[in-house]
Each structure stands twice: as structure tokens, then as C-alpha cells.
Design brief:
By secondary structure, this protein is α/β, with parallel strands linked by helices. It contains 17 helices and 17 strands. Helix 8 crosses helix 9. The termini are far apart. The structure holds ligand IFG.
Length: 529
């Protein structure tokens, strides 16, 4: 080919390549990855400070999770993050130690011993186009920062099967920390038994909303659910049924310890409750000696309350309680033991008060701090005893006058077994109907006269299971109300507005669906389809 022809051929190739380049650039510009700005993403609980920036970060297959100055627990948070990102992205992100503050990798978890004024549970989350950095004083803060990061990814991140992506996170900085230190839910596994797998699924839901306490109601009239090696009949007999006469069940000590570990890995403290002196028919049926007449009661599968009592005059009963508390306390690293104390209608007050006084000693001797339902305020409360307000403001005020801290669980706001409205088939309604808006529009610090923020340890949402037998029903009653309770426990009341929250909650429809949560589509919420 002569030189002229070569030149015109090369010119054609060049102009062809140039055209291709223009097309590629145009396509990539048009499909430039964009995401909702950080301050327009729906986050629950609402963080204290959100400062959006331009652009977004893109998680890639080669991304790395770095842990700097990390303790083992910080590393565990890295593993947890890698684990929750894997199913939907298909990326198996390695978790590596680094001693460089600006690791080249894409996600850096940084424990800082500077006194960031973020407390033990707060965090700073910084997203740039190049990398994500979560900084905290403690591993719990890193964990909570991970929950917020999770919510900044598209809803599809929650799917358990590989999704197309792209995995974009809007740039910006969040500084955040909780208003209350005790943010919990209670699961009644006595009326109806829930398997360890169910309880772990529930723990995962609590962690997603930055709750940090799971109160397990382990015994009641209908069932005893925790193995006590020194009193084996409690479970072999007392755990053999439930409301409605089903087969019941119980946690072996190994299963219970495994639940405690699972919760601990998610910075959730288990609070074990043995309800007494009332709500004890399962124990009274298991051992005759716990009854004043020495005769074992029959197992009970109904839903009445207030008909049972331990024999408060027998020393054997206090030996029983010490054995039970000792074995459970040894498996429960958290600081609290819940003694119940509610609805002891079969225990005369002159017997109830010395009983509660004596049981507080037993709990203290076993190294734990007492929590009890608000009725225990009629006894002489010891300095570290906390009362859980559920129905009686007068009891609660009595408790505060004795110097007790309060966990706020007003039945007409946070009882998750309360029907939403008269059409709700599940649940009860003795405390009234509790729609999603009513569950959110209240302030724990002003609800009960004489009980202010300084007296309040936090908030807890109990799910009583007289009418709840499975996870789908549990999810329907718990969500979306628990999301609002989590925000009440975390976000300053000055930042909480129903008109803002309901929009954010409405935008969670896709995420709840991606998580497979059977949530109630309340008519009070503008659900985004
Ligand atoms: N009150 C009883 C629970 C349960 C509940 C159902 C407390 C502290 C009604 N005690 O709430 O055992 O039956 O809504």
C-alpha cells in the first residue's frame, strides 16, 4: 500500500476510535452514578448531625475494610460489616489491620482515644468519593455507625441474594450519639415459646435500629423457659406447655449462653426476667414445696393473670430463688436481673413488701442490679434498683422519690401487643389502641409528672405473646412501631417531629420488604411504593 493510502487508512482508524471514545464518554456521563444526597436519605433513628457533601462513594469488589488501632471487638465489627454487605453485593470484603489513619482502602473503622464528645455509643461517619471512615471512642460506636452506613446504601443492600448494584453511598459527614443509654425491647417467651433462631432474628432487628437491650421474660404462669440444673422440673415439666396448650419449650443453658453471645456481638445486653412472686404457676406446678400447702399446682394454659404466688413465708422459696438467680446470673454478663413483681394480686401487700425487700438482697448477692415492674416501688428500694413504668404513675413517682431510675414502658405507647385499631386481629387492647402515630408522638421526659429525663434510664418496648405465636405475627405487631421507639430512645426530642418522621418511615417500605419484615402498613404513614 503506498504512503497516501496508509495515511488515509490511519486517519479512518483514528476518527473511528475517537468516535467510539466520545460515545463511551457520553454514555458514562449520562449514566453517571448518582444517589440521593445524604441529608435526603431516610435514616431511623435520625442522627444528631448530618452534613451532606457532593458526590458519592462506590463500594467495589476490591474494596477493603481496614480496622485501625483496633481491639478484637473493633475487628469483630469489621467482620460483621463484611458479613452484612456480602449477600446483596457478592463482595467478600477482607478485613485488615492498619496503623495508618488514612488507609488507602475504602472503609476504615477507627477507634480513637481522643475524647470525641460522642460518648461510648456515638460515632462519626465520614463519606468521601475515595473512602468511608467510621470513628468512635468505643466498638459499640463503630457498630452503630455501621447501622447508619447500612441505611445509606440502597434498600437492595438488605437482600439475601446478589443484586446488580451499583453500591453508592452519598458523601457527607454524620456525628451522632444516643439521648438515652437504655434502649430496649422485651420478648415474652413464656406465654408462647420462641426458638433460639427466632430470638436471634429478633436481635438482628433490634441491632438494625441501634437498640442495645433485649429483656427476656423467661417465666410466667404458662411456662418456665430457662434450664435450671438444680431445679430440673422447672423446664422438663414447667416448660412443657404454653398458652393454648401447645408444646412450649425452653432454652438449655448452652442455648441461652449462645443467645447472650449473639446479642453481645451486636452490643445488645440481655436482661433476664424471672417474674415473682406472682406469674409463677409454671414453677408452682413443677415443685409442690414452692406452694404454702406443699401441693404442686396444675399446669396452666389460659391467659388470666394475678392468681399465683410463691409462698413468701417459706425459707425454701428464698433458697429456690437464690439457686435460680445464681445459675442465670452466671450466664448473664449484663448488669441487671429483672425480678418482675407485677400483678401479685394473690400476695397480700404485707407479704409482698418483705418478699421484694429480701429478693433485692439475693440479686445483689449474685452481683446484679434489680429491675422490677413499677409495683416494686411499694417496697424499700435499694440504691441500684430500677423500676419499669408500665401502668401505674403513682408507683413510678414513689420509686423516683426513693431515688430509683425509671425505664419507661407506658403500655398505651410502647406495649407492642396492643392492637393498632379495632380491626387488628392479633394482640390485646386493655391499654387502648396504639396506632403508629400515637406510638411515636410522646416524650418520655414529660409523660409522668415528677419523672424527668434525669430520672429516666431509657425506654423499652415489651411484646407480650398471649396472642403471638410466630415470627410473622411478631413482625406485624412490632414493626413499624419499634422503629419509632428506637428513635425516641436515640434522637433528641427537639429533633423529633411526626411530620418528618412519617415521611422517613414511609420511605422504609422498600427496606422492610428487602429485609423480609412483615410490617403493618399503617394508614397514618405515607408508604412509598
Ligand atoms: N400485663 C402483664 C403482662 C401481660 C400484659 C399483656 C405487665 C407488667 C398485661 N404485666 O404488663 O404479663 O399479660 O398486655
Amino acid at each position: 500500500m503506498n504512503a497516501k493510502k496508509k495515511k488515509s487508512r490511519n486517519l479512518k482508524i483514528f476518527s473511528g476510535l475517537f468516535a467510539v471514545l466520545i460515545i463511551v464518554l457520553t454514555i458514562s456521563y449520562c449514566t453517571r452514578e448518582t444517589t440521593t444526597p445524604m441529608n435526603e436519605k431516610s435514616l431511623i433513628p435520625l442522627p444528631v448531625n448530618i452534613n451532606p457533601a457532593d458526590g458519592s462513594f462506590r463500594l467495589k469488589k476490591r474494596s477493603v475494610i481496614y480496622v485501625s488501632n483496633g481491639s478484637d471487638k473493633a475487628f469483630e465489627v469489621g467482620d460483621y460489616l463484611s458479613g452484612i454487605l456480602h449477600p446483596a453485593t457478592g463482595f467478600k470484603l477482607p478485613v485488615k489491620a492498619t496503623n495508618k489513619l488514612s488507609a488507602k482502602g475504602d472503609i476504615l473503622l477507627l477507634l480513637t482515644h481522643r475524647s470525641l464528645n460522642l460518648g461510648d455509643e456515638g460515632y462519626e461517619l465520614k463519606v468521601t468519593k475515595r473512602m468511608i471512615t467510621i470513628t468512635a471512642n468505643e466498638p459499640a460506636g463503630l457498630f452503630h455507625g455501621v447501622q447508619t452506613l447500612r441505611q445509606l446504601f440502597p434498600d437492595a443492600i438488605e437482600k439475601t441474594t446478589k443484586q446488580p448494584g451499583p453500591w453508592l453511598v452519598p458523601a457527607g459527614t454524620i456525628q451522632d450519639q444516643p439521648a438515652y443509654s437504655y434502649r430496649g425491647a422485651m420478648l415474652d417467651v413464656a406465654r408462647h415459646f420462641f426458638t433460639p433462631a427466632d430470638v436471634k432474628a429478633f436481635i438482628d432487628m433490634l441491632a438494625f435500629f441501634k437498640l442495645n437491650v433485649l429483656h427476656l421474660h423467661l417465666s410466667d404462669d404458662q411456662g418456665w423457659r430457662i434450664e435450671i440444673k438444680s431445679w430440673p422440673n422447672l423446664t422438663t415439666y414447667g416448660g412443657s406447655t404454653e398458652v393454648g396448650g401447645g408444646k412450649g419449650g425452653y432454652y438449655t443453658q448452652e442455648e441461652y449462653k449462645d443467645l447472650v453471645k449473639y446479642a453481645q456481638e451486636r452490643f445488645i445486653t440481655i436482661v433476664p426476667e424471672i417474674d415473682m412472686p406472682g406469674h409463677t404457676n409454671a414453677a408452682l406446678a413443677s415443685y409442690g414445696i414452692l406452694n404454702c400447702n406443699g401441693k404442686a399446682r396444675k399446669l396452666y394454659t389460659g391467659t388470666d393473670v394475678g392468681f399465683s404466688t410463691l409462698c413468701t413465708s417459706k425459707d425454701t422459696v428464698y433458697k429456690f430463688i437464690d439457686d435460680v438467680v445464681h445459675e442465670i446470673a452466671a450466664m448473664s454478663p449484663g448488669p441487671w436481673f429483672h425480678i418482675g413483681g407485677d400483678e401479685s394480686h394473690a400476695t397480700p401487700m404485707e407479704d409482698y413488701i418483705p418478699f421484694v425487700n429480701r429478693v433485692q438482697d439475693i440479686i445483689r448477692w449474685n452481683g446484679k442490679k434489680v429491675i422490677g415492674w413499677d409495683e416494686i416501688a411499694n417496697a424499700e428500694l435499694q440504691p441500684n434498683t430500677t423500676i419499669q413504668f408500665w401502668a401505674n404513675a403513682e408507683n413510678t413517682q414513689k420509686g423516683v422519690k426513693q431515688g430509683a431510675k425509671v425505664i419507661m414502658s407506658p403500655a398505651n405507647k410502647v406495649y407492642l401487643d396492643m392492637k393498632y385499631d379495632s380491626t387488628t386481629t392479633l394482640g390485646l387492647h386493655w391499654a387502648g389502641y396504639v396506632e403508629v402515630d400515637s406510638a411515636y408522638i410522646w416524650d418520655p421526659a414529660t409523660l409522668v409528672p415528677g419523672v424527668s429525663k434525669a430520672n429516666i434510664l431509657g425506654i423499652e418496648s415489651p411484646l407480650w405473646t398471649e396472642t403471638i405465636t410466630n415470627m410473622k405475627d411478631l413482625e406485624y405487631m412490632v414493626f413499624p412501631r419499634l422503629a419509632g421507639h428506637a428513635e425516641i430512645g436515640w434522637t433528641p426530642v427537639s429533633e423529633r417531629k411526626w411530620d418528618d418522621y412519617k415521611v422517613r418511615l414511609g420511605n422504609f417500605a422498600g427496606r422492610f420488604e428487602a429485609m423480609g419484615i412483615n410490617f403493618y402498613r399503617s394508614p397514618t404513614v405515607p408508604w412509598k411504593e
